[in-house]
Predict the structure.
Amino acid sequence: MRRSWIALALGSLVGCSSAGKASYDYDTGYGWGDSGGGAADLWDEDTGADWEPEDENAFFALAPAPSPTFVFVANPSRDTVTRIGVPDLDVLTAPVGSQPDQVVTTPDYVSAVVFNKGSSDVSVMDAVSLSERRVDVRPHLDTLELSPDGSWAVLYNQLGNEDEDATGSAVSLKEASFVRLADASHQAMALGFQPRDALFTADGSQAIFLGDTWLGVVDLTAEALDIELIQVADDPLDPPSSEELLLAPDGAFGILRQLGQSELLLVDLATFETERIDVGQGPTDLDLTPDGTHAVAVARADNTLWIYDLSDPTADARVLDLPADELIGSVVFSQTGNQAVLYSTASPYAHYTSWDLSDDTFSVHPLPKPVAGVGIDPTGGTALILHDDEDFGQFEPEYEGKHGLTLVELATHRANDYVLPGEPIGYDQSDDGNKSYLVMEGVDVLEVLDHAELILDEVPLKSDPVFLGTLPELGWAYVSQEHELGRISFYDPAEDSLKTLTGFELNAGIEEEE
């Protein structure tokens, strides 16, 4: 679970109709200026490289939560971590370092790993006994990642984040700390650049740091860790932004998408050699098909899809023309692999496009407002489409200045849309794909979304929500809420009941049951 205060651990192992649309006639810098143009009108050859990228909205990205046995909550004001047992909701709190900022669990759910930002150390805790091994790490780091095999905790300073407490001390933003969890050993490393992100090969053998000029590759199987720098920008003084790195499922290579570039960069992760491969103008998204056999790039500027066979990524890509009057910059695949939703977060059009992968046909469908983000449930049956409160392009009058949510049945494209009273800040879904959950800033309700019926029901909360997650084996949702002593609620959809713990930071009991 990334950058959250809550994590799960497995204790049992050890323990648009056209009416009402707003008109749009403006200069956005994207090359459009009137409502009659299609995608071709939206590309400016002189400013194309300066286009803002698609907003790769992580709202629908799900944190791993494969067991319901424990929920861990970091309490930064008290320098403690609370473990809540499920379903009995028993509470146990243990001290950690100063200002615990993030907590994650290892893939085997044996350990919880806590980043204590205030004391620049990591607590490696036994999930059952809460016994702790504390490891010092480099100062002024802000991001914690675990390798997929759970062997390593990697901490670094992510580009764009700033340490507001760093005054009066020497600060480097180009360092990383590696903590081997088996023996709680630590190795510091100067990366040589500030990374945008850190990724891992699926087997956990390599960590890859993504930067604009460099990729940094670290062999995590080596006794003494070292970094191999791979230059990915031809001009290190003015590099394009490295927007996205897709790793092949077998970890043999990565494919890098850079802002404004008409080529992708293929990086061999064994030899560290690079090769340019063609892609259309203005690629804005790069994704892996659900079966892991192909990579798909969306070339927004020339309205094409580029499909690469990962068994030979240097071979000519298969190119599909997208609907001529649409602006498309992103793709999200159904996990069934038979359908995808195409859209743009930079488009004035209140549309989405469905791609049938069985015959490569496309169909365009209306929405009440332009798209801010898209997710698809695990069954592949329902798309969830977010709309933000910006009045940009086409929108239905009732959505003026409002956030929105549209549920779409992908088999028929039957849709149901909602005007939302606040900005969505948390989302998760049941592992069976039947329900999902949403919370909004400053709105003390849990929204329960029924995918089959395309309806939304509201469950009142005691205070404003902070974080949302799910317990897959039970099918429960949990919501942490604002409260000076800690508050968390657990919703059981089978019983339509809510249990709330208040004061759990002081090991308090169940406050209420509804």
